[in-house]
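Hi Prof. W.,

I finally got the DUF538 domain-containing protein prediction working! I wasn't sure whether to trim anything, so I left the full sequence exactly as given:
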Amino acid sequence: MELMRALGFPEGMMPLRELEECGLVRETGFVWMKQKAPYEHYFRGTGTRVRYDVEVTAFVEEGRMKRMTGVRSKQLMLWVPIVEMSLDGGDARDRIYFKSNMAKAASAWVVVEWLSSQFGA
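And this is what came out:
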C-alpha cells in the first residue's frame, strides 16, 4: 500500500486483500480501509496470526498509526486488539512497536525486530 510506505512502514505490514475503499482525511490524519471480507494473515517470521476486519481505521502520522480499530493479534488463545503501531530504531527504523488496550497490557509495548523476511505471505 502506498500510504503505508509514505508513513515509513515496511511493505507487508497491512496485508489487506480485495480493498473496496480506502481514504485519508489529511486535516486529521484519519484513514479507513474497507476490504471485501475479513482476512487472517500468519507472519511466519514472528509466528503471529493477525486478523483484519472488513473495516480498518486509524489516525496516522509519520511512523505511527494510533487509535486503530479492526486489527487483532492472536496471543496464546486470545484475540488481542492492536490499537497502535509505531516505528523506532533510530535512522534504520528497524523496530516496530505494537500497543494493545487489554487491561494491564494497556501501557505495555511488544517489541518486534524488523526483518523483511518475517512478513512473507
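Residues 2-119 form one domain. Does that look reasonable to you?

Thanks,
D.
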